[in-house]
Amino acid sequence: MRGAKSAKWVAIAAVVALGATACGGGNDDGDSKAAADPNGKFSVEVGEPQHPLQPANTMESNGSIVIKSLFSGLVDYDSSGKIVMVNAQSVDTKDNKTFTVKLKSGWKFHDGTPVTATSYVKAWNWAASPANKQTNSFWFSDIQGYDDVAPAKGKAKADTMSGLKVVDDNTFTITLSKPIPYFVYKLGYEVFDPLPESFYKDPKAAGEHPVGNGPYKFVSWQHNKQIEVAKYDGYKGPNAAKNGGVVFKNYSKLETAYQDLKSGNLDVMRQVAPRDLPVYKQDLGDRAVDQSYSAIQTIAVAFYTKQWKDIDPKVLQGLSMAIDRDTITKTVLQGTREPATGWVAKGVLGYQPDAAGDITKYDPAKAKALIKEGGGVPGNKISIQYNADGGHKEWVEAVCGSITKATGVKCTGDSKPDFQSDTNARDNKQVKSLYRSGWVLDYPFISNFIRDLFGTKSDGNQGGFSNKKVDDLIAKADAAGTLEESEKLYQQVEKELVNYMPSIPLWYYKVNAGYSEKVSGVKYAQDGDPILTGIQVKK
Amino acid sequence: MGRYVARRLLQMIPVFIGTTLLIFLMVYALPGDPVRGLFGDKGADPAVLKALRHEYGLDQPVLVQYWHYMKDMVLHLDFGTEIASGRPVTEILGDAFPVTLRLAGMAFAIEAVLGIVLGVISGMRAGKAVDTVILVVTLLLISIPIFVLGYIFQTVFAFKLNLLDPSVSDATDYSQLLMPAIVLASVSLAYVARLTRTSVAENLRADYMRTAIAKGLPRRRVVGVHLMRNSLIPVVTFLGTDLGALMGGAIVTEGIFNIHGVGGTIYQAIIRREGTTLVGLVTILVLVYLFCSLIVDLLYAVLDPRIRYA
User: Are A56 and A259 in contact (CB under 8 A)?
Assistant: First the structure.
């Protein structure tokens, strides 16, 4: 009678579930100040995560929003870019090279095992090893001994990084290969989350049913349909959930999600589709969200091409001044972007307004003069490469039109069918002239927008920009004694960039989203995602 | 008859090998690489890249990759694993196909029944008012793009009248699948109706029809047996190929109604260069097509006594 038995359990579970949610209907009095229901669940629109749910294996937004709900790292940041301690009691350093991490005691994973120093050290070593094929492994490359674990060529000499040492249950030390004053900022990224012992028995299964230490515990993942997480009652962090849990609903089209939001089948959206932008503020009223987040769109230069190899930066300054950012963001982009005034996005520690000075202001006459002074654009023709599946075509054409109108330089869009072909061309150094580049913050410190993009050896530097002076300035900023000093030096680097023009800043991204009448307290963080734990569900 | 079927089944083998190889080569020829694609805008650690490429056999020549893939598929029914998610492709197929099967089944039933009924009515009354009305309606359905129709249905039936759900949240619930199935069926329905009408109108004047009426058979039998059987041959041909097309998933319709079936899965696999997933999906579709066309050919013999397979 197995069937009968399981049916009985289902029935019991259903009764319990009904009791727990108190059958939310029936008392809908339309009162907007209705009391919050601490056990209420709400839904968020999210696509299918690309990877298994392993913290060091997730680098796209669909997976990372789920990982962030299930795992808590050592530190996090507030909306101004300041560090907040989460699982760490303190992270101290005397020389910016060796960091002593003390954990808050009494933390537990969702399976009841304690979170200790070993949970962190072992997890980082596991993720850094190429044998485990974690896509974010290079994040550990600042730590001493990473090159022995993951050498670029040949066999690994060690399976653990010599820079990580467990002192006792609640203390461990991190030694870097060279001092980095803002290393604590990097620790906020998901890749540095701890893992429970059960993870290593079967990492693959753990990716399907993750056990974390975060504000929510995992309930279920129905592929291509939804992921459900529930509030973890034993959570000791500062960001405990104010709701009963989250359902991440999978939508393949934002338009459909928006229809569901209007009809109350969905509670929170992360981004409204272009089709609905003109009407979403009328539709949603004060439930429409419009705020900037820390991401920037630029036109990067392929410095390895004949055209730009020995270019006078004045030419690029001229091209930059020929772009009418105000008009394009208002018309073509329907107000979803904000004209950039520098290379660093808002909400990042070290952001300074107007860092690039005049070169982001539209001035056709000056643009023409500068290009002439710099010896003109070689071939008097440029193209901007972009991926056709990302909705970039319209603004690329507008930018091109703006440049041609102001300076007479011929400009065309160089469309690649999808993002894969686009990155492929960049990797193989096949970009013909210029290309579209976007950058969303990894950690809210200014170096992420400068060192990680314009350093000669940086991963994000795909245009082959290389300048000894800029590299020296970056090295100097990295060697600063304190965070504040490093921030100041980096701000100087940003001011310097005008004289080298590694890329042309265009605009900052904005979150254009909304939420249903069922929820309140919906705020969005610097990475553009809603802060799930703070959302309250009305009774 | 038996020999004919056996010969047809044997002919499937080269077709099957040819199509899978073609798809495999096409995915391989596209620029971009699934492993590099996992890293997006950021650079990747070369050691990890190498390890991943090796695990999925992407560092071998393409024909060797194809050979291993087909060997596993035929001998162990192992369709490989998807690179990004690390899930077995059989599991992904198991998620997508039942959904599409339900949707396609409903759409197919709607278009076959409604299409043939409308076609017979207008064929029997060729040139009369009813015929003209059905002609206008079917032409309208053929000329409206499916995404327009989908959004119109959504707006009218879900938002204005609140009769149906705007999108599908549970793909096992047939009432939610009704609206997308109608949208999906609409264009084919029009074709079925047109084909049936022409065929019926033509066969009405055939000699055997006159004979049947002269023999004094009841009208029901004249129309239902003698007229219908012969008129359905072109319709069955169309329906057979259309069933294959429906099984291939409808990317647009699935997207509008948030159905996670074969269409969306194929689209994602192409975008991410997931060769294994794509070949797995297409393999199943090729088999479906081959069987559909075989059944259509056998149905000819059932429908028209003049056709015999030796």
Answer: no
Chain B residues 219-278 within an 8 A CB cutoff of chain A: 254-258, 260, 264-265, 271-273
Q: What is the pTM of this model?
A: 0.81
- In this structure, what token pair is assigned to residue A363? 């001035």
Contacts of B81 in chain A (CB under 8 A): none
Closest-approach residue (CA) in chain B for A427: B43
**CB < 8 Å to A460, chain B:** 41-43
User: Which whole-number Å values give the CA distances from B73 to A8, A121, A228, A299, B15, in the listed order?
Assistant: 40, 41, 34, 45, 16
Chain A residues closer than 8 Å to B271 by CB: 389, 418-420
The predicted-structure confidence for B225-261, as pLDDT tens digits, reads as follows 889 888 898 999 999 989 888 888 788 888 888 888 8
Give the side-chain half-sphere CA count within 13 A for B221.
Answer: 9
Q: Tokens representing B264?
A: 């969306």
Joined tokens for residue B50? 């190498």
Residue A213 Cα, gap to closest chain B Cα (Å): 23
Residues in chain A, how many? Answer: 539
Give the mean pLDDT per block of 10 residues along chain A (539 residues).
40 38 36 73 91 89 93 90 92 94 95 96 94 88 92 86 95 95 93 96 94 96 92 94 94 86 92 89 93 92 93 95 95 92 92 93 95 93 90 92 95 88 85 92 92 86 91 93 93 95 95 94 91 93
